[in-house]
Protein: Gfo/Idh/MocA family oxidoreductase
Organism: Candidatus Merdibacter merdavium
Amino acid sequence: MFNVATIGTSFITDEFLKALAQVEDIRCTAMYTRVQAHAQTLAERHGVSRIYTDLDEMLASDIDIVYIASPNALHAQHAEKALRAGKHVICEKPFTLTTAQAEQLFQLAESQERFLFEAIVTQHMPNYHAIKKLLGQVGKIKVVQSNFSQYSSRYAQYLSGSVPNVFSPQWGGGALADIGIYCLHFIVGLFNEPKEVHYFPNRGYNGIDTSGCGILRYPDFIASFACAKDSRSECITQIQGDAGCITLHGEPSRCPRFIFQERDGTVHEEYTLAQAKNVMVHELREFTRILKENDSAAHAALKQESLAVMRTFEALRAHGNVPWPNDD
């Protein structure tokens, strides 16, 4: 049985704990928060017995894994502390602020003989794996498009002048970091790193990208994506080839259902594979399996994808001149 401790008390931690309850051989036994009252309700809801306000004290306790859902700007320092304490780490997206941080953390994890995972649900969804297997039937890829747009529940707060973390440059917020990252994992996970990238943001009053469009140029095709937290749209992802087209209906994070059409428009098949309602269940099952079996090869594949996405993300952010922590 693996004992997990959490850092962060936002809604995503609540979802993580709900998913954890559906996975065998892993449980949450501790939480870290700067203010105990912030975690009290969450701990009671999920039966977590220990709340720490001292991170070092928690890291010295009998836990095996640390789940990090702190603000984006704190991911790297929290992951480093956990790894140095000899813990495995599951870190929320975006993994780190920079590629250099990600590389350093993976090197540290290797030296500590610990596993470091990026909590990105896309790559673990059954329908995503089905899409990978179907790519050969699409023929030569010509165009890829992905849209993940949802009107943020915190956008009104932002417009009022009170800046939540998700719209804060100081905390590593913005549309690209928050939901565009799912489009990147979907595309880069299927086609590897692009040769050239461009990002065109719509900026809020503090310079943050409240929405934006990106272009990823590959040797033989173009991929594009749109991500928005200031407006909503039906989320659709399409992979167009000279023999057919795959159309994913729904967020690229969840991959709820997709169809494969032949070149003449004939619907070959509709895919709605059984998936857990809480999409985090799939990644947690895989992380637990890797830990139990010490599957370093599977971990290495996840690591390479995380680094490829980080390099792409960093290049897009730089092209779009999106403000970021520690920018001069």
Remarks:
- The chain is about 35% helix and 25% strand.
- The domain at 2-119 is CATH 3.40.50.720 (Rossmann fold).
- The two ends are 46 Å apart (CA to CA).
- The chain has a mean pLDDT of 96.
